[in-house]
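Tutorial handout. Part one gives the primary structure; part two gives the three-dimensional structure as tokens.
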Amino acid sequence: MKQFSATLLAIVHLLSALMLLGLSAWFIAACAISGHAGVLAGFNYVIPATLIRFLAVIRLASGYFEKYFGHLALLQQLKWIRRNLLTKAFAHHQIKQSNAAITLQQESEQAAARWSAIYSPLLASLGTGLDQGVLPAAVTRRWCTAATTALFV
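Part two.
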């Protein structure tokens, strides 16, 4: 449940950051245009400014709680891993009780190193590939099609 909450909050964090970026860019452009000779004379800057503040607070809170629940889930998984490793080590009588803490620490560090050496870089490169290649191409194609249709209709 904690891992699901952390994932959901990470998605909320990402979406609020993207919405904040888009709304802020639009707001800056709209304010610049509204200053020219009565263009958008009735421009209401209060609602977009309020939405920008709201999205900033949502982004901040979701980022904080995502890290909180993510750490809770990680600590819970580490507890489970350490308990299993220690149970297996004592079941096979591979270690003496005096060396239990050292062996447990080494086994835990090996399990954690596996994540940081293999899975994390793989997921980061996959995310970067999607971010830099696939998504911009799809979004650009959709926006260009929409803009072309709007111009000629």
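Part three, for discussion. The mean pLDDT is 77. The helical segments are 2-34, 46-91, 100-152.
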